[in-house]
Write a structure and sequence with these properties.
The chain has about 475 residues and is α+β, with helices and mostly antiparallel strands. The protein contains 17 helices and 18 strands.
Length: about 475
């Protein structure tokens, strides 16, 4: 059956569309973080939606499991095959056309394999922008971003991928094509089926194209850096910024002094934005889409910081005087993860709790974990504005990565997830479940929610061929 399947797939896709050569497949068998490595029967690279549909129908006929893959930049092992060697990697990377970009409607319709940075550049040429960005923008694809409901640093103002997808095309488990690319502001014909595919991590169907919301290009921005004594003060600063700046507030990131010190040690030419030590730091960005509002941004920023000083919310602050300085401030934020990794092994958690509870959660969770696991250091940083922080627990000095992660590290993650659940939060704010958190989701999720998810999975993928072993 395997030989018959590969012969039919080869005839369908041609030499560019199917390979069984290990040297071609090997780079795509390990996830971005290097935690998972699997084996694959072959790698398919269809050129269009029609080929995807025919291939999926062929997989259904032969009961061949499929692992959809975009840029392979996911954080939870969701696009990595297991080690059985019977799964087909279905790469969407050849499907990289920008089908249409409509400046008047402020929409872009793109195939799943379009790289995020390519979309950014195409939108910029039309005086527009796609308001979602992240560190992996040079490799992450639109299909993967849709399938994981990716977030990033602009969620506070524009929402995650779910809020930016206006239309969707996907291939279902039987090879049928779900086609709803035309965006309608009002459409009350029952279930919003595109939302079922968004965030489903390829377990229900394969996203092949999307129509996305664009925004006017940035006419001007102001980036600020402020030092504060506590995360509670940072939260109060966020509320003040929302009141003073309204919808001009594009980003609000927080990091502790530990993370800043790690970046300063990691980047040879980095300079601390402020003098002295501050328990917490806030990176704030205001963005305007027109020249008139842009001209007012410096005055608005100064008023915000002056009010924050008067209320005792910040102890020091600076405003970037140029685009180069603004870029350097953002570089600090974007370098935290590699800088922390350079220190040593760590269990990295992408968690969220209700925004108003985040300061209290961090104050409770950090000392508890450090007391329960002597020698560790818990560090939180990230998107305070949308209740999402990256909660890293760094191993004691001298720990061996593999053994520590498999023993103490695993128990630490379980404890973090228990705490987050008790606080009404989520064990995955923006990175998805994949295979990394599948068992934890099964352990902690509401039984009714799990039952509904499994029912939908069984209804849409009765043979269990779509990205098996991931999410549910």
């Amino acid at each position: 059956m395997t030989t018959a399947f590969l012969d039919e797939a080869s005839r369908l896709l041609g030499p560019k569309g199917l390979t069984t050569a290990l040297e071609d497949i090997a780079p795509w068998l390990t996830d971005w973080r290097g935690r998972y490595t699997g084996k694959a029967l072959a790698m398919a690279s269809p050129a269009n939606t029609g080929e995807v549909a025919a291939l999926v129908a062929l997989c259904a006929k032969h009961s061949a499991p499929i692992v959809p893959q975009g840029g392979n930049s996911g954080m939870s092992g969701g696009a990595t095959p297991f080690d059985g060697g019977d799964e087909l990697i279905l790469s969407l990377r050849r499907m990289n056309r920008i089908i249409a970009l409509d400046p008047a409607a402020r929409t872009a319709t793109v195939e799943a394999g379009v790289i995020l940075q390519v979309l950014h550049e195409a939108a910029e040429r039309e005086g527009l922008r796609f308001p979602l960005s992240l560190g992996g923008k040079g490799s992450a694809t639109i299909g993967g971003l849709v399938s994981t409901n990716a977030g990033g640093t602009q969620v506070l103002r524009h929402g995650s991928m779910r809020a930016l997808v206006l239309g969707l095309e996907g291939v279902m488990a039987d090879g049928s094509v779900f086609q709803q690319l035309v965006p309608l502001k009002k459409d009350n014909r029952g279930f919003d089926l595109k939302q079922v595919l968004i965030g489903s991590e390829g377990t229900l169907g394969i996203v092949t194209a999307a129509t996305l919301k664009l925004e006017p290009a940035i006419a001007g921005r102001v980036v600020m850096w402020a030092g504060t004594q506590s995360l509670h003060d940072a939260r109060a600063l966020l509320l003040l910024a929302q009141n003073v700046t309204g919808d001009l507030l594009e980003g609000f990131e927080v990091l502790p002094q530990h993370s800043l010190d790690a970046v300063m040690a990691y980047l040879p030419d980095a300079r601390a934005p402020l003098a002295g030590q501050h328990n917490w730091h806030a990176l704030i960005e205001l963005v305007a889409g027109d020249a008139a509002t842009s001209a007012k941004l410096p005055e608005i920023a100064e008023r915000l910081l002056a009010t924050a000083f008067e209320r005792g919310l910040i102890s020091d602050a600076t405003i970037a005087a140029s685009e180069d300085q603004a870029g350097r401030l953002w570089l600090i934020r974007e370098t935290i993860s590699p800088a922390e990794r350079a220190i040593g092994p760590a269990m990295q958690h992408d968690i969220s709790v209700p925004v108003e509870l985040m300061p209290a959660f961090v104050e409770a969770a950090v000392p508890q974990l450090e007391a329960d696991w002597p020698g560790t250091q818990a560090v939180c940083f990230g998107h305070l504005g949308d209740g999402n922080v990256h909660f890293h627990v760094i191993a004691p000095p001298g720990s061996e990565r593999a053994s520590w992660e498999a023993s103490d590290g695993k128990a630490i993650s379980r404890q973090v997830h228990d705490m987050v659940t008790q606080w009404g939060g989520s064990i995955s704010a923006e990175h998805g479940i994949g295979q990394l958190k599948r068992d934890e989701l099964a352990r902690l999720a509401d039984p009714a929610t799990l039952a509904i998810m499994r029912s939908i999975k069984h209804a849409l993928d009765p043979k269990g061929l779509m990205n098996p072993g991931k999410l549910v």
